[in-house]
Amino acid sequence: MLAEQRFEAILRELSDNRAASVSRLCQLTGASEATIRRDLNILSRQGKLSKVHGGAVLSGGAFQGEEPDVGTKALLHQDEKERIAHYAAGLIDDDDVVYLDAGTTTVRMVEYLKGSGATFVTNGVACAQRLMELGLRGYVLGGFLKPGTWAVVGTGALEELGKYNFTKAFLGINGITIRQGFTTPDPEEAAIKTKAAEQAYLTFVLADSSKFELVSAVTVLPLEKATIITEHLPDPGYLEHTVIKEVSE
């Protein structure tokens, strides 16, 4: 593949997913890691992308189509996610029954929950694994394991969710707008998030500031149905529609 063809493939992948790991770009182009890293340097100097550890990201764009895989999403906004996760974990009490959504920020929450006496339910394989490693009391939903996001979805998972009454639910999300509310690309994952919120007394959406003014295909909840935890609120107009906690340094 010629360099111009690789550049086109890289930018197309970023346009579709907003982020891509070096390994993913190697798979797409058949090029070596060294070649892809040189390509990213060139495109970065041209202002067409931003390099991050292990890959690249493309900023901007109002609509998000296909969802990036877990490895790619983990590259994005790492410091912001860490602050959000730390704050969110501090909201959990020992007598809580907590739903943890599949997602890179909810996984980070678990790192701050060592010794917690709460009961956790999750549809995230990575969350379930970390809960077990830390000796926390946890349950994982059964159903179809979705490649890419490592989320358990489908009718079986929805039926199991209906049996629980959560004191608190923590959800990841792909896009937030005033008009469309909280959105995500996949209908099955959206159904799980919606059901978990219905079963919860309090629902929190964990979202770094890049998620605002992005729209995905399926609405999960209107804004007023959940509290947003973010590191920065880009538009104060959102405060007219829901409670928002900005997490400082």
Question: In a few lines, what is going on in this structure?
Answer:
The protein has 249 residues and is of the alpha/beta class. It folds into 2 domains: 3-59, Arc Repressor Mutant, subunit A, CATH 1.10.10; 78-246, Rossmann fold (3-Layer(aba) Sandwich), CATH 3.40.50. The protein has 9 helices and 15 strands.
Task: Throw out a few tags for this protein.
Rossmann fold; 7-stranded parallel β-sheet; Arc Repressor Mutant, subunit A; 249 residues; 24% strand; alpha/beta; 2 domains; 15 strands
Describe this structure in words.
The protein is an alpha/beta fold and 249 residues long. The protein has helices at residues 3-17, 22-29, 33-45, 70-73, 78-89, 104-110, 125-133, 155-161, 187-198, and strands at residues 19-21, 50-52, 55-57, 97-100, 119-122, 137-140, 144-146, 151-153, 166-172, 175-177, 181-184, 200-206, 218-221, 227-230, 244-246. It folds into two domains: 3-59, Arc Repressor Mutant, subunit A, CATH 1.10.10.10; 78-246, Rossmann fold (3-Layer(aba) Sandwich). The strands form four sheets. The chain has a seven-stranded parallel beta sheet with strand order 6-5-4-9-12-14-15, with helices on both faces. Strands 1-3-2 form a three-stranded antiparallel beta sheet. It has a three-stranded antiparallel beta sheet with strand order 10-11-13. A hairpin with a 3-residue loop joins strand 10 and strand 11. The chain is globular.
